[in-house]
């Protein structure tokens, strides 16, 4: 049986998110909008996907096809990502692709983040991403507080790898969609595949299933399939 978690953030805190500035076309996502640990998320705790919990996590990986999203408003911003920590801990080591609608049209940009540091957005000219591209992402703990974050767009033929240090708990591992603004573009259905944690299937850890909610469900997380290595995220509303 799946365990689902949704929470409603305080109205005063949620209101702060609505004041986030839009950014011009071609720029990175709005300054200060981090992909944050679950208990920091505002506007309804906008994580969707699965989180394995426990201790001593050393790796997480997954693949997806970048969705052909349609913007509902310039507030829309979301990203599929994989990461370690963030579910019940105050750091996240994560990488993925953000879709930003602040220009009025979807802009895809690869990024990584070692929260609480700000996200780092990769050059769109050196590491381009478009709808329909096949993306593979992984985060690996290398010991001594060091992490290797790797993102590959096999459709475009590039791989980005970086090594960063951060003192962390390694208390969870996730395959997630998240909207820092609390507003999802219409991404249809996004399918995660090849989802593994510590070299085994994500499902073998009995992960918590998460549905993003902003007063009403914004997307629905599907059941794990393919031996616990795949699931879908289906858009419901902004």
UniProtKB/TrEMBL annotation:
The keyword Magnesium does not apply. It holds the Pfam family Peptidase_A4. The active site is at 178 (proton acceptor). Coiled coil: none annotated. It comes from the Bacteria. GO terms for biological process: proteolysis. Residues 1-27 form the signal peptide. Keywords: Signal. GO terms for molecular function: glutamic-type endopeptidase activity. The keyword Signal applies. This is Peptidase A4 family protein. It comes from Actinacidiphila cocklensis.
């Amino acid at each position: 049986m799946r365990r689902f978690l949704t929470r409603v953030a305080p109205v005063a805190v949620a209101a702060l998110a609505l004041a986030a500035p839009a950014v011009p076309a071609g720029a990175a996502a709005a300054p200060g909008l981090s992909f944050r640990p679950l208990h920091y998320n505002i506007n309804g705790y906008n994580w969707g996907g699965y989180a394995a919990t426990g201790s001593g996590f050393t790796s997480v990986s997954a693949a997806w096809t970048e969705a052909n999203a349609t913007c509902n408003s310039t507030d829309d911003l979301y990203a599929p990502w994989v990461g370690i920590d963030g579910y019940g801990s105050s750091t996240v080591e994560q990488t993925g692709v953000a879709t930003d609608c602040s220009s009025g049209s979807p802009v895809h940009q690869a990024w990584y983040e070692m929260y609480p540091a700000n996200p780092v957005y990769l050059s769109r000219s050196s590491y381009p991403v478009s709808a329909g591209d096949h993306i593979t992402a992984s985060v690996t703990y290398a010991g001594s507080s060091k992490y290797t974050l790797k993102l590959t767009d096999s459709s475009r033929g590039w791989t980005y790898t970086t090594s960063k240090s951060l003192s962390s708990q390694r208390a969870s591992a996730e395959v997630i969609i998240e909207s820092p603004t609390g507003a999802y573009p219409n991404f249809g259905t996004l399918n995660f595949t090849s989802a593994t944690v510590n070299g085994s299937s994500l499902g073998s850890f009995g992960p918590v299933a998460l549905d993003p909610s902003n007063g009403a469900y914004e997307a629905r997380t599907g059941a794990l399939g393919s031996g616990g290595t795949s699931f879908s995220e289906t858009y419901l509303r902004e």
